[in-house]
Each structure stands twice: as C-alpha cells, then as structure tokens.
Write a structure and sequence with these properties.
Hypothetical Protein Mth938, Chain: A; five-stranded mixed sheet; three-stranded antiparallel sheet; 10 strands
Length: 116
C-alpha cells in the first residue's frame, strides 16, 4: 500500500488521497489518524505523539498551524532525538509540501494542525 499523499491543504481543511479532513491529522506510512486532539491545543506534548513513536518513521514533519502557533515542548524534541526520528517543523502549508517531497525517500510521518 503506498503512503498517503496530500492533495491539498488550506486553513482548516486537508485532502489526503482524495478524502477531505476538517480536523487535525497524523499521517503515518500505513494509516491516517483523523481528529487528532492534543493535551493542549497550541502546545505539542510527548503524549500527543504516541502513535508516531510506535510507528518509528525515519522523519516526522510537524505542521505547526497556518501561522505556526503550535509550540513544541522540549520533551518532544528530546524523545524524537532518542528515537532517532528526524523532526522538521514548519507552518502547515510548507509542512504538507515537505511531506509530499519526502514520500519516495523513506518512511515519513506528519502531525498537522490545520488551523492557527
């Protein structure tokens, strides 16, 4: 099964493999987790990424929102470093482009906040 592909992103909406999502998502190499809720809306905690840590992708691309308002805690950075998962954090529009550009390079995952 090919990895999910992002067809389109705009504030509050993303289209992945032709399916529309209007809630934050995590994209793993083998599945999409829709309706991704975090412990705190604009803060990314380690507990918010348990599915990603279990999947062990080579790269995690974090979409911090259209205006990059989601803050990433030091515990997330430390845990990803220990797990040897490369982290790239960008505004969500650029994160979607980066995700698609890396699909043929290796196992890539994305955690995307679709609004702020």
């Amino acid at each position: 099964m090919p990895a999910p592909y992002i067809d389109e992103y705009q504030f509050g909406k993303i289209v992945i493999n032709g399916e529309v999502y209007k809630n934050d998502v995590i994209i793993l190499p083998s599945r999409i987790i829709s309706g991704w809720w975090r412990k705190e809306g604009h803060v990314l905690h380690l507990s918010d990424l348990q599915d990603v840590l279990m999947a062990q992708p080579e790269v995690l691309i974090i979409g911090q929102g259209a205006y990059s308002r989601m803050r990433i805690t030091p515990e997330v950075i430390d845990a990803l470093t220990i797990a040897k998962i490369e982290m790239i954090s960008l505004d969500t529009g650029r994160a979607c482009q980066e995700y698609n550009s890396r699909l043929n390079i290796g196992d890539v995952a994305a955690a995307l906040q679709l609004t702020c």
